Amino acid sequence: MVEKLKVTPTEKEFRDVVGKPVVRVDAWDKVMGKAEYIDDCPIPGCWYGGTVRSDVPRGRIVGIRQDPSFDWSKVVFVTAKDLPGPNEVAMVRRDMPVLAEDIVNYVSEPIALVAAPTKALLKAALKAVKVEIEPLEPVLSIEEALEGKNVIWGNDNILAKFEVKRGDVDEAFKEADIIIEETYRTGHQEQLYLEPQGMVALPRDDGGVEVVGSLQCPYYIHGAMTHALNLPPDKVIIKQAVTGGGFGGKEDFPSLLAIHAAVLALKAKRPVKIIYDRAEDMVSTTKRHPSRIRHRTGVKKDGTIVAQDVDLVLDGGAYTTLSIVVLQRSLLHATGCYQIPNARIIARAVATNTPPNGAFRGFGAPQSIFAMERQMDKIARTLGLSPVEVRRKNLLKSGDAFPFGQRVEDDGARLVFERALAISEYERKRAEYSKDQGPKKRGIGVSLFLHGGGFTGAGEQKINGKIKLFVARESVELHVSNVEMGQGAATVLTQIAAQGLQIPFEKVKYCQPDTSKAPDSGPTVASRTTMIVGKIVLRGTEKLIMQLKEYVSRHFDVSLEDITYAKGTFFENGTPLADFFEIARRIEEEMGPLEVIGDYVHPPELNWDDEKCQGDAYQGYAWGANVLEVEVDTDTWEVRPLRDTVVVDVGTAINPLLALGQVEGGSLQGLGYGYLEVIEMEGGRYRNNRLANYAIPTSVDCPDFFVELMEIPCSRGAFGAKGLGEMPLSGGGPAVASAIEHATGLFPTRLPVTGEILTSLEQEGDERRS
Amino acid sequence: MKASFNINGKVHELEFAPHARLLDLLRDNGFTEVKCGCREGFCGACSVLLDGELVNSCMVYAASVGERKITTVKGIGSIHEPHPIQEAFVEAGAVQCGFCTPGMVLATYALLQRNPDPTDEEIKEALDGNFCRCTGYVKIIDAVKLAARKVKEND
Description:
The complex is a heterodimer. The N and C termini of chain A lie far apart (89 Å). In chain A, helix 6 (218-229) packs across helix 7 (253-268), helix 9 (323-332) packs parallel to helix 10 (365-383) and helix 18 (656-676) packs across helix 19 (729-744). Chain A has a 7-stranded mixed beta sheet, with helices on both faces. Chain A is globular. Chain A is of the alpha+beta class. By secondary structure, chain B is of the alpha+beta class. Chain B folds into 2 domains: 2-75, Ubiquitin-like (UB roll) (Roll); 84-154, DNA polymerase, domain 1 (Orthogonal Bundle), CATH 1.10.150. Chain B contains 5 helices and 5 strands, in the order E-E-H-E-E-E-H-H-H-H. A 5-stranded mixed beta sheet of chain B has the order 2-1-5-3-4, covered by helices on one side. In chain B, helix 2 (84-92) packs antiparallel against helix 5. The radius of gyration of chain B is 15 Å and the shape is globular. At the A-B interface, helix 2, helix 18 and strand 30 of A face helix 2, helix 3, helix 4 and helix 5 of B.
């Protein structure tokens, strides 16, 4: 006789959560002041760590002198000679040292480390170290790097080079009515997460080390730590603390910081915490790559593009960090949302003696898209057509191909573009603002952009992400290595798991990433968490339900085909048999802890050739259009964004409230990049090391936003979701430039479009003026 | 130095260095809900109320506080009895990374104390000293408006 099992009416409890504006799981802790960021965590016996840095952009270290009048027995001091393993930070390459040993390659490069029991003693110890450096001639710009007079990396200063070709560009240029050329430039941008970088390392009894900190990629750090510390994987544990923003800035840099803290902790035999203050953070951490992008476009008189040459150069800074992959993404987004029948794109990342540049939301795409969108405006201007007309003429449609061969699968570009023009009343305002008299002039500009979701090319196959679902008594724990850093991943992944398992949202517990518990589901980057990791989570939920179904089948002696599962309950031909947690409890009692691993499965229809840079570069493309209205005071050249209409296709908005938050926040960062956020370099040194001299948009700079989400589902993302996090940033820069052009008649070719740039454009005369 | 400080309605006897900033006094004594974002009076992450007035605690000497009442975000509501402003921030989706949130909530508190019915422009002006890098301020402004309605309903 079959024992009856509990059937609770969970149907009443379960509700669809995908597509709902569920309150984020971390909201209450944060709003009450209870969330503990790394510098808030009390750690008994913890010492403070600090860094001795290079003061020159390039030179040979002649000596590191410790002032003999300082009592060095009270602190721990580490140079390259004291490192327990290879002096390499393992990332895409291993060219960056943990501590400079012989040569320094950028201002602020770490040379030595100190840990002390108090902040005051740390300060005194850092002061008591003098590094003698014999200066060498530095390479400080893209041009100097390409010139190659001084070689600071490899044989030619080239960190990476890729090329994409389609059709016969030279032949096609002959068919063009006109060839339009321009060079575009973009500057550094600082992520400016509000919480500065911070990491605590705790030595373990087994000789290993645990690191807790503000970070995006636990397993990147894990890999870098095992390499640099010569430790087996099980002796290194990485845990994420509540993280106050990342935006890419906590993707690669924390690997270096974690090794620093760990080296000190292992030597001091006690926990060591390194928390950067804002100035140290700004001068030493990675920023967005500056770019120089040359476009040469052959067009017909009606605006149709027949051929395009792009020469794209990114300034990688002193070491590779992520420049290879940033460059790839830059290359693959270089022709934006347009159909280019003949294209030749050459992309290079060069080394300079400046702090290494790294990941920042957009990851190379914002630079490319700025240049391409400006080029579209330039084509319009040259041919006397409207920017809208030229874009319409060349938009990518479903079935068209990118220069690297991938087919476009939807008409997202056209749909977001037309919708943004309509709801912003673009045409009416364009005409109205054109009539503005007096020094204050309004302008309206449009940009169109896209973002490929997930890693480039074979990246997802290489990472081969895994997630773990662990069934506890009355809840299911979700273990992933993807972090919550403000973007909402903890909530969205919980929604996906709850929906997949058809159990109440409250019954799923997202667990803060910890490499001793969570499998490697990959880094929290590349707009991949919702789309790609979400899909892996879903696969895990299917596997778990199948396991439970098989148990039900055995227990009730019912064939698998007759069992259905809905809303937390198993049925036999419509009759309820047992509920989810009851079956799970049984399995646990009989067979031990119940957990399943969800696996990545690569969509078989997608193929990528890494050597040739050809094929299906991304699993899906999200599209966006940004119509920005600005007011420019032509006396002072002050720019004020008034209204920003943003329409984005996100595939499926798993949580519309959080999705809107991503679009609004990303768009404002893009506007900051467009006109406000200037980083000046002087002799390889950032002149901006404070919030007083690096302006980010505040509430008064914020335009009135009108954001609309469009949903064109992508089969490869969880519930149809596309990558969303990074995309909105790419729209801001070109929209600002385009709107300023409309207001002033000037044609900015570089970002950010500052008052100085506008003044010099005006002074140039300027034959470009319409 | 030693002095007594009235923090969130309780008097604490605390030691501090002569040049210690209020920010460090608070954080060193466990009031880590006060965040340090820049230490130069720009970002507002360290905002607290001094007798109801919004200040950057990194710009205030601890020794100068005297009898004034210090309020942190933990002083205006608790998880069992959240302040309507805190409820509004949660409901409106105004929280992302959360690092600016304690200061942002207090800036809202100070604003609504002196202006219970602010316009969008007044809200933007009032929050100008509190940086947020995540939200684009849209949901924060929504939260302030929602909070204003909630506070009025509670009165």
